[in-house]
Design the sequence.
């Protein structure tokens, strides 16, 4: 069972996503627990403010350390955490091997930034790992936190219906996934490769592997070179 606590200034952004599909099922089955915390509940300010002007001037607000520290301290008093993660465009790039490694954790905290980001002292003293979902800048850490959470939850044993399914996804073996087809076998005279209809398991397996290799070379030469 993996537990993920997400700290956010805009928790509503995560509501609908959490209550759908695979994530909802994982939680109902007790395979995962995802809690979203409103940082404003931990503000001591009477206006429940979370941000303030940057020292030294310049445009953009900065998230204050106190509400974040209070929320993390409260969570840590309830249980121990493997990692306290900050989603950040300059963090370590998320990829499948990193998701695989992190999926073994029991409890993690994910902090979502906003505005110009968080007071640097949060990153220095409270955060154990910083993760980026790609080399572009989004306006908040909620979507990045959702991306990371999804990548971790679908790797939990029992979450996907067919347990081998996550293993055959792209990147798991350094290859992208082969093409897949479903009924009808013929549509507008576009037909499904014969081998898939043959029922011959060994031939199907070999065909899929060949397709994976070919596609990896064509689409992701960076992976094919073993980088
Ligand atoms: N001024 C910051 C960007 C702030 S963007 C900088 O230049 O680095 C606001 C918040 O969105 C960040 O605090 C972070 O939590 C989130 N965010 C934006 N892009 C992201 C990315 N590619 N990966 C992870 N988090 C990101």
Sequence:
């Amino acid at each position: 069972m993996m537990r993920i606590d997400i700290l956010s200034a805009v928790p509503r952004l995560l509501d609908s996503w959490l209550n759908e599909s695979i994530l909802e099922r994982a939680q109902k089955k007790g395979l995962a627990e995802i809690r979203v915390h409103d940082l404003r509940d931990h503000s001591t300010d009477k206006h429940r403010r979370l941000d303030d002007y940057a020292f030294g001037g310049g445009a953009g607000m900065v998230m204050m350390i106190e509400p974040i520290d209070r929320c993390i301290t409260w969570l840590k008093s309830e249980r121990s955490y493997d990692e306290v993660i900050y989603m950040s465009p300059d963090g370590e790039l998320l990829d499948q091997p990193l998701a695989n490694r992190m999926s073994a954790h029991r409890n993690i905290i994910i902090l979502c930034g906003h505005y110009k980001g968080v007071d640097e002292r949060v990153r220095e003293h409270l955060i154990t790992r910083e993760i980026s979902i790609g080399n572009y800048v989004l306006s908040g850490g909620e979507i990045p936190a959702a991306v990371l959470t999804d990548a971790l939850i679908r790797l939990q044993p029992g979450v996907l219906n067919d347990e081998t399914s996550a293993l055959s996804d792209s990147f798991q073996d350094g290859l992208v996934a082969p093409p897949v087809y479903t009924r009808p076998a013929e549509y507008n005279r576009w037909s499904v490769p014969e081998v898939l209809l043959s029922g011959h398991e060994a031939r199907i397996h070999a065909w899929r592997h060949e397709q994976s290799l070919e596609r990896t070379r064509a689409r992701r030469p960076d992976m094919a070179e073993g980088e």
Remarks:
- The chain has a mean pLDDT of 95.
- Residues 170-224 form a domain with the Trp Operon Repressor; Chain A fold (CATH 1.10.1270.20).
- Helices lie at 12-18, 21-28, 65-78, 96-102, 120-125, 142-153, 201-219, 221-224.
- The first helix runs from residue 12 to 18.
